[in-house]
Records
---
Amino acid sequence: MAEPLDVGSALDVARRLREERTVDKLSFFLPHPKQLEFLKTGKQRERALFAANRVGKTTIVCVEVACHATGIYPSWWPAEGKRFSYPVDFILAGKTALSTRDILQTNLLGPPGSRASLGTGWIPKANIIEESKTASHGVSGGIDYIEVKHVSGGISRLFFRTYQQGPDLFEGVTISGGLILDEEPGLSVYGEALMRIATTQGYIAISFTPLLGWTDVVKRFMNSNSPDRAWVNMSLDDALHIPAERREQMKRDPVEPHLRKARIEGLPDGSEHAVFPVDLETIKWDCPPMASLPDSWFYLWGIDPGIGHNFAAVLIGYDRDADIVHVIRGIRVKNQTPLQQAYAMRQIAPNVPVAWPRDAGNREKSSGTALIKFYKEAGLDTLSRHVTNADGSVGLEPGILDMHHRMTTGGILLNRHLDALFQELRDYRRDENGNPVPVNDDMVSALRYAIMGLRSAAQDSLGGQSRRDRTIAAQRNQQNYAQAKAEYEREYWPLTYD
């Protein structure tokens, strides 16, 4: 006959297990596959975790720190992961003192403000040297420094910092373990972090939701094949600790359209500082062969002239009846003359009018000749006057607002193969004062000039002989065109078409 159940003993066991789990969470943790994938990149010097909201990105970074600081590596720890057999020092930094306390400190040590809560984070209570704790001067309940017992018998040290400290956040610490960055820092902070691990065995781990889009830090990881650098993407679907029904509900929650990709998929797209905060996937268009484009459309080139910097040209087709701008082709080249740039455009659409900005009418210091005159002499059908906004002005913002309105109302479609243009649109951002930053915006500017010049677009000018009377212009430009062609073929200048 079975022994009667001792309810008191069972409750006692349950209570002890609950207490152990409270002060030794690390022993009860099991990573989901994407978290494990991130740990497998542990031997790279620079690592990034691009993740959706609320998927456990900070959890796995802090679990990793807890394992390194204590020397306790669970049975599930991947063979590819990094291990330290000795005590290590870590700097853990967030955007502000408050976020550092509420996210990094809370995850590692437990909620702030209570002695009883210390040790309820990922670092086991038995490993925390409580008397070593020093309070933060930045925020109530925050910690600047604490020591952790390592299984080797030595002491690991944790330093809590904020990006607001600038380069000072790294002062006084030799980063033998790692530098943990919660949320994306500026490039200056990241560059300083790299300097701090240059001569150590330490690493940088950064975890964030890429709400700022294609920043320099994001591109450092996603556009690089460096063996010292690795990144992992964790979407909402990868968060297996969240029930499937709840994940689907989270996808349905209201999200700003331009931030949806970042918040749901953990990948960069738009930005809260984006000049064009739209989902660019919604304006991509499968452009047919140029020979099959409608004769009823009105065509126009827009150019952003340049020799020392990138020259860009964008060809558009305007469906006036539907009021839709179709972006057909684009060119972006550097260190080429107007003759060579014009030759590239004429290989695509020789009879299409060309819209140009006011500053192209300025005289060059060396020649005393307006820059646009060189393009006209090279055989392009440049408009007689620079383009303006509808109100006659040449300001930047009206043109941007017009482009943005078209993007959000279906008034513009872009050939999906124009990768460089899409990249510029993603990167185009405003500074802290709300002003667009004019960096790597050549194709965007060319497109803006084309849209500003829509009323000058020409029908039936794409391919073949234009139905407009171009006989005199063709004769006048033939000699210049032949010269440009000969120069190009002689020098073999590389043209980059987009």
---
Amino acid sequence: MGRPAVARGVVEAFRAAWDAHDGAALAALMAADGIYEVVPQGRLFGADLIEQQMAFMQSLSSDFSIRYVSVVEDGGRLATEWEMEGTNDGPFEPFRLTPSGQRFTIRGAWFFTIEEDRVRSCRAYWDLAGLLNQIGVRPPGAVAWHLAAWAEETSDDG
């Protein structure tokens, strides 16, 4: 199996572990000194703590699923765009929000560095504002006004 196939296999196993809600499998894919950075939360996890991020997502939705929209590869570096959907059926712990029962679909991206057959680093970006909006959390007045005005401007364009 060539080097690109190994990296792509690791990245697919990473998605599959998320999709299966399997924090132990996720941790097993990380290099011993690997990092997982969640940019919207401003949090950095080592391989020993990545299961906490899985618990965070499960606190939001017990039925979330992830599928890749695209994968771009350059040797041991890969970028994936993904789509997550689920139901907000649990308390969203970091924000102390009660379950809304609302369905959501958000996009995000993972940027990987793969060494050997492990994740050396993964930076995660995802649409926190879109998620909060879909589960019924409205932004404060001034922010809501600007977002509404922007939506009106963009809807006039097409």
---
Amino acid sequence: MKTRTGFVSNSSSSSFIVTFPKIPESVEEVKKIMFPKDSEIDIEGYDYNMTTDEVATRVFSDIQKSHPLTFKEISEHLTHLHDGAAGRMPKYQNYIRIDGSMNWNGYEEDSLYEAVDMTKRRFGYAPIKFIVYHFCYSDESGESTLEHGDIFHNLLHVRISHH
């Protein structure tokens, strides 16, 4: 039996809300959108480096398994930010009626309103003109480059850390 005596770390993960100008139809198109000037670089990660081809292949695969987000879905993802913005979200306790029942419609409506407002603040506008996807990568299973390599630096995006 082997005993590890070196550094051991906790795993982390991050979600990314990323805007694309259109729905990519190929790995090559993803690569051109993500790395228009840096098409042949290695992206550094904690455990190993990835080429832009490898990153584009993975992102295209993830796009194929997903769907473009609705504005409501974008807003809901952004409510999980850890920058204090989520503190503005309505508290469910404030929607309990005198008889003890919950006013779920009021709570959901007010939550969506705040999330939409937060989305506009984070992106600077309502990202209606763009195709928006949600990605989630962790630093285990060889994904540290995807999580920490700033792979979306050429696209409007928001990173949500789940450390």
